[in-house]
Each structure stands twice: as structure tokens, then as C-alpha cells.
Amino acid sequence: MKKLSPFLPLFKQFIKDTETGKRLKKNGERIQPQSIQNYYYVMQNLVQFSTEAGFELRICDASKLNSRELLSEKNYWKKFYQKFTGFLYKKGCYDNYVGNNIKTIRVFFNYLKNDKDFATGDFQRMFYVRKEEIDIFVLSPDQLKFLIHNKEFEQSLIPSLRRIKDVFVFGCTTGLRFSDIFLLTNKNIEHNNGDWYLKLKSQKTKVFSYIKLPGYAVEIYKKHKPDNSKTPIFGTISLFNFNKSLKQIGEHAGFTTIVEVSREKQGKTKKITKTAKSQNRFCDKMSSHMMRRTAITTLLILGMPEHLVRKISGHSTASSSFNRYVHYAQAYMDTEIEKVYVKMEQY
């Protein structure tokens, strides 16, 4: 006879053990807060799914199941996967979000098996984790230079937006993540033989970086430099308000070109059209992610060798995500050189 246990209490314990450090990464490090927050989002989706679909969520001890019961359990989880992913797609979610939910559930199954000695039966192996290639939006070198050097534009911004603009420019130059840039203090800036350097260890990847700063980045640092070594250089702000401010800055800068956006559902590409709630202007796509993406692509576009850009950005030689930046930069260079060829062909 099947021995069933409620799914959600076990999932809550999974989150609790992660928060308290009882469950760690394979290298012994604690799980990042953002990952834990994602676990909560998955739990919310599971609760909503179970309620609205009338689907009972439970875990079965598969250690003593006979062949007929194993087949029945396999069919249960196959049905769960189809219905839960269908529920998320119906909500308007795309492949990356759905895939991340499924990935978390697979991690939960492994937790039950490895940390709790719960014989789950490995049915999670049937769960396919979908991924999609998201369009990369970055500032062009000309747009970045405008934000760096146009003093008239800078003076037209209110003080709070000027600060965000400075942070954004600093991020687009150094390639720092949002989580790292707002942790910077005076200790992270070093003046050595007339040159200024940024030194830090990434909160996410633990990779150490030592980056020479250009004059305009040094001026940004000096403008916001706190009086002590403990206060963050750029203060604090929520990610939501940071991204909201960036969109306002982009609109004010005239970065309003309409861009084509596409996403994938179940592997099928769907073009995203403009609606009352969703704009397809370039400025509406500006976010904290654009800082790191802009820094990497700008270095590549302006001719820095790939291996050096990888070192600065903390990407390994096998990183597939870095190759996307290389392809984007190549496409940009192809477009620019095509403009030159057109002029050459005119007589």
C-alpha cells in the first residue's frame, strides 16, 4: 500500500533548511538569498495551482512499491508536470520562468532523497527544464558616451535620477552586478601610482576582480565618496525603484526607438507586441542587467581580446552565456562595417 505524505509541508521544510544553512551548496557555501526568494515564488505557484486545478500534491515513498504501483506513481508525476506547466503558461509565463520553477522542484526532490533519505523514486527526471534565449539589450557606445559626457542632459535630471545615472554609468563601465555595486565602499577603491582601481570579490561568483578605472568613473566615485569606509558609496535603493528610475532616464535621454521583442513558450517563438501595460521602446527595456551586458559588449566591440573580457567579467572559458555577448558584438560590428561598405560602393 502506498505511503503518502503532503507535498507542501515538505517543501516548506526544504525552504527553512535552506534559510537556516542546514542545507548548503555542494561546496559548503550557503544558498544565496535570491535563490531562497525564488523558492518562495515556486511555493506560491504550487499552492495556487493546487487550489485552482484541484490537484492534490503529495509525495509517495517509492521504496516498497510493486511494478503496478510504480507505473501509477510515474503517471501521477507525468500528469503533474503537464498540468503545472500548462497552468504557468496559461498565466502568461514563458519558458525561462517555467523552466526555473521545474528546476527548483527537481532540486527539492534531490533534497528529499539526499538530505532526508526519502525514497522519491526519481520521477523528477521526467521533468524537462525548458530554456530560452532572451534578447540582449545593451547601450550602444554612442548612447553610453552620451550618458557619460552630456552635462546639459545631466543637469536636466533631478538629483535622485542623477545618482542613478551615475551608478548606471559606473556599472556599464565595470560590468558589476546590481548586488555588487551597492555593496561597494571606499575599501573597494585603490589609488596606486597615479591610477585608480576597483577591487572586489563578486557576491555571486566569488571571483576576484581588479579593474583599472577611467577618469569619468573616478569622478563619479569622488562625487559620491562617503566620509567613512563602512558606508556604501552609492547608498541604497531597491531593485524595483532602480529599474523604474532607469526607464525614466532612458526616456528623458530620448532612447525611445521601438525594439522587437520575442519570447518562447514550449519552444515556440512568440513576438511580444505593444500593449497598454507593455511598451516596446528601448528605454522601457532598460534595467540593472543592462549594466553588465553593456560593459561586456562595449569591451568586445571596441576590440578588447575575448580572454581579457572574460577575466574582467568573471566568465569561464566554457561559459555559454559569454558566447552570446560575442555573437551580439559581432552582429553590431557587422552592421557598422556594412554602413562603411555602402558608402564605399557609392560613386
Automatic annotation (TrEMBL):
InterPro entries xref list: DNA_brk_join_enz, Integrase-like_cat_sf, Integrase_catalytic, Integrase_recombinase_N, Tyrosine_recombinase_XerCD
Organism, as annotated: Flavobacterium subsaxonicum WB 4.1-42 = DSM 21790
Domain of life the protein comes from: Bacteria
Keyword Flavoprotein: no
Gene Ontology BP terms: DNA integration; DNA recombination
Name of the protein in question: Tyr recombinase domain-containing protein
Keywords: DNA recombination, DNA-binding
Family statement: Belongs to the 'phage' integrase family.
Keyword Acyltransferase applies: no
GO MF entry, a single one: DNA binding
